[in-house]
Amino acid sequence: MLRRLIIMSVLAALTAMAARAQQALGDRPQAVSPQTNADNSVTFRLLAPEARSVQVAGDFLLPSGAEPVADMTRGDGGVWEFTSAPLPPELYSYAFIVDGTRITDPSNVYQLRDIATLTNVFLIPGGQGDYYKVSNVPHGSVAKVWYDSPALSTSRRMTVYTPPGYERSDCRYPVLYLLHGMGGDENSWSELGRATQILDNMIACGEAEPMIVVMTNGNPAMQGAPGETPEGFIVPQFDLPKTMDGSFEEHFPDVVAFMDANYRTIPDKAHRAVAGLSMGGFHAHHISKQYPDMFDYVGLFSGAIIPREGVSSPVYEDSDAKLARQFAQAPALYWIGIGRDDFLYEANRDLRAYLDAHGYPYVYHESPDGHIWKNLRIYLTQFLPLLFK
Amino acid sequence: MLRRLIIMSVLAALTAMAARAQQALGDRPQAVSPQTNADNSVTFRLLAPEARSVQVAGDFLLPSGAEPVADMTRGDGGVWEFTSAPLPPELYSYAFIVDGTRITDPSNVYQLRDIATLTNVFLIPGGQGDYYKVSNVPHGSVAKVWYDSPALSTSRRMTVYTPPGYERSDCRYPVLYLLHGMGGDENSWSELGRATQILDNMIACGEAEPMIVVMTNGNPAMQGAPGETPEGFIVPQFDLPKTMDGSFEEHFPDVVAFMDANYRTIPDKAHRAVAGLSMGGFHAHHISKQYPDMFDYVGLFSGAIIPREGVSSPVYEDSDAKLARQFAQAPALYWIGIGRDDFLYEANRDLRAYLDAHGYPYVYHESPDGHIWKNLRIYLTQFLPLLFK
After folding, report:
1. Cβ A50–B308 below 8 Å, yes or no?
2. Tens of pLDDT along chain B (389 residues)?
3. A311 touches chain B (CB under 8 A)
């Protein structure tokens, strides 16, 4: 009935609209990039006919031991190209440098933010990389949730993973509180950390118990990630007021109280874990000793241990007595993971020496490499199977 | 106790790590961009000392009536700069064109994807723009949730907004199903559409009832947005198999059944709305007449109306009889919004003529401009206050 009234094909019109929209914002990228080849080498391309030099920079170049920047070669039609060595499974980051200006790959819409820098990403699956893929398994829900913190006198944003079937079940679940590093926020673990995919995949295969995972924002001066608060589209900062000053640790019971009040948690020590990376490992260390009855599982992933110089907080006082109290009823698991090249290696070695000297039990995992996301993702996959058993 | 064992300040070390990480991926952007000035003009800057020409492209240039591309001027130290006219409140998109290659602004981490193109965004607040800001109001939760669809024999990803206080209350809520356009996905309304901020702000001020909002993926060939499915980091496509072939409409009761089974909905017609933009308006039109007892509120935002040529589906047959049945118990609201410059203007005019001829009641809003996100966001803010009254 209405069909006869239309003159122009709707599809043709919509397509034309899209083309115009693209045109309005410049030429559409025409190079295929990145392209994963059969041998897991990756070809990067950039159409830049007028450029005089184009490089690709990224962590995928590091295994060769060289500087993580490689020259690309200009080919026909002004497409610059570089092909990597075959790459082991991993989530990699890269960017281009065109005549000295750093840009992201306009052909690749997959980008992640690390502090104030966006980089493109790509994933080589297989082996460990399969934990980071979206697989054909049941998927948990990932929510951005605001909670009230009386201790910080504000509401704050966090990420909550609930396991597959949570909405449909009446079950209660254990909870892992998973904390980010300096410069990060409540999005870091679910984005750069691939925590959503890791949890879906490990729960599906029975490698991890179904659990709720709470990814907080560890910057007490912020309500949430940059762009997600009333401050608007600010430039992300690495170091913020109130960083590692004790106030995040002091407010932490507000998070646990919110979760126990609003989610079907199992609200006891035996069913709570706290773990974090770098500054988040610092937080996990100090939170778990500040509240010794709260967490039965503790994870320090490339963890900072030592308070900042000049910081004074009750949280960091009486550490010997607090650790003694915590280990009087020792956590079911106190897990420490660190890379041999990590600048925090010595701090973690000293912590282990202290724990050894006092007979406090812990599990230690030492890995290659340093303070990089690759290690942190691996530590999560090693920590999760040990929880809530 | 452990403090004395550390030599290097942890903060200094973490800062050094971050600096090295930045260095590894090229120089850090040094230009401040974009910068909103006191008169709501915006200054864009790009550090590109070796570039021969730099332009900025974006919808913010359109009010002047010119082409949406402007030349930037090279200043001291190789920083290119352009300052816009004072801009009305709005969420704007832009990109740079450097020696003919389109790039995003390396100083601005805020980017949104529209189909296969990333653009930077910035927001001029005030007036209508205040609906798009994150404000100091209670915030709903936004979850990425997977549901099973027996009709499509797969599980699928969607975005679910629950209003502030949902977790803590025992209340049941009405539900708006909010559908995207061609090339979009379950992320479109919460990202380009600013639906999360619009809902938070309108609910907080009593302009909209507290409600659940379900943002589905309207591409039956996909399980979810690009990058969020087992297909991996694919290049997003505009037109996909099964687009507007009836299968999305046929599967829609699976979505409603999932929501009614897993959320505290009010599971009746009087408390359900369906609305969509462009292809989503097409879906809302056809879903609401296919299931006349399901939705009491229908919204067509710049809606496509007419099925694609050559498509055969029971959904698109007997439209006269289906509309007669739907309007025999007329929806509480049938809302049509369209821009005067929209290429779908005639299709919507013809639909109105048809509704008029049959005495089917509807509410009509005609706006300036065409088939652009600006209009779609405005339509949402006009539609929400009319729901569930």
Report:
1. no
2. 444 334 334 445 555 454 444 444 444 557 999 999 999 999 999 999 999 999 999 999 986 655 689 999 999 899 999 999 999 999 999 999 999 999 999 999 999 998 889 999 999 999 999 999 999 999 999 999 999 999 999 999 999 999 999 998 999 999 999 999 999 999 999 999 999 999 999 999 999 999 999 999 999 999 999 999 999 999 999 989 999 999 999 999 999 999 999 999 999 999 999 999 999 999 999 999 999 999 999 999 999 999 999 999 999 999 999 999 999 999 999 999 999 999 999 999 999 999 999 999 999 999 999 999 999 999 999 999 999 98
3. no
CA distance B82 to chain A (A): 16
Residues of B whose CB is below 8 A from A136: 230
Assigned superfamily of A141-386: Alpha/Beta hydrolase fold, catalytic domain (3.40.50.1820)
CA separation for the pair B365, A355 (Å, rounded): 70
Q: Which residue in A18, A97, A139 is closest to B155 by CB distance? A: A139
Angle at A303 between CA A236 and CA A114, to 5 degrees: 25
Nearest CA in chain B to A279: B14
**Contact list, B282 vs chain A (CB under 8 Å):** 10
CA distance B346 to chain A (A): 8
Q: Quick check: B9 and A308 CB within 8 A?
A: yes
User: How far apart (Å, rounded) are the C-alpha atoms in residues B91 and B87?
Assistant: 10
Q: Best mutation site among B61, B188, B233, B285 for testing chain A: the one with the most A CBs within 10 Å?
A: B233
When CB atoms are compared, the residue of B135, B146, B164 closest to A230 is: B135
Predicted TM-score (pTM) of this structure:
0.94
Residue-wise over B130-151: b if at least 16 C-beta within 10 A, else e? ebbbbbebebbbbbbbbbebee
Write down the architecture of domain B29-124 according to CATH: Sandwich (2.60)
Complex confidence, ipTM: 0.93
Domain assignments of chain A as residue spans, ordered by start: 28-124, 141-386
**How many angstroms separate the Cα of A49 from the Cα of each of A307, A373, B47?**
52, 35, 20
> Residue A89 and residue A128: Cα distance in Å, rounded?
6
- Distance (Å, rounded) from C-alpha B335 to C-alpha B381? 13
Contact assessment for residue B307 and residue B283, using Cβ atoms and an 8 Å cutoff: no
List A residues 45-104 in contact with B (Cβ-Cβ < 8 A): 46-52, 55, 57-59, 68-69, 93-95, 97-104
**Hey, what CATH class is A28-124 in?**
mainly beta
